[in-house]
Amino acid sequence: MWIRAAGLAEIPAGGSKIIVLKRMELAVFHTEEGYFCMDNFCPHAGGPLAEGYLQGCVVTCPWHNWSFDVRNGSLCHNAGVKVPVYACRVTEDAVEVDLPG
Asked: Where in the sequence is the domain holding 12, given as residue range(s)?
């Protein structure tokens, strides 16, 4: 189910935005490769990933420096640890996120 997450102007290149859709707090990132969406909570201690440092397609949690690939949600040093990710697409003026049912 595609849901409008944000206007394109709301997330500048290299930036992120916290959004709440269907009672889920999500982080949407705008990278050189496009837009990516994942849960906003680091699995380590619940840190807000959208407030982390984004370099390329890697976001680093601001609380304890865990780094995740925003394209697939994998912890950079242990691919067995993941944050749920959701597909994104760009329409004329917005980013949409595909959320389950």
From this structure: 2-98
| CATH at residue 32 | 2.102.10.10
Long-range CB pairs of 52-60, under 8 A, 24+ apart, other chains included: 52/16, 54/14, 54/15, 54/16, 54/29, 56/31, 56/32, 57/29, 57/31, 57/33, 59/16, 59/27, 59/29
pLDDT tens-digit map of 30-75: 999 999 999 999 999 999 999 999 999 999 999 999 999 999 999 9
Give which of 45, 81, 79 is closest to 63, Cα–Cα.
Answer: 45
Based on its alpha-carbon atoms, the radius of gyration of the chain, rounded to whole angstroms, reads: 12
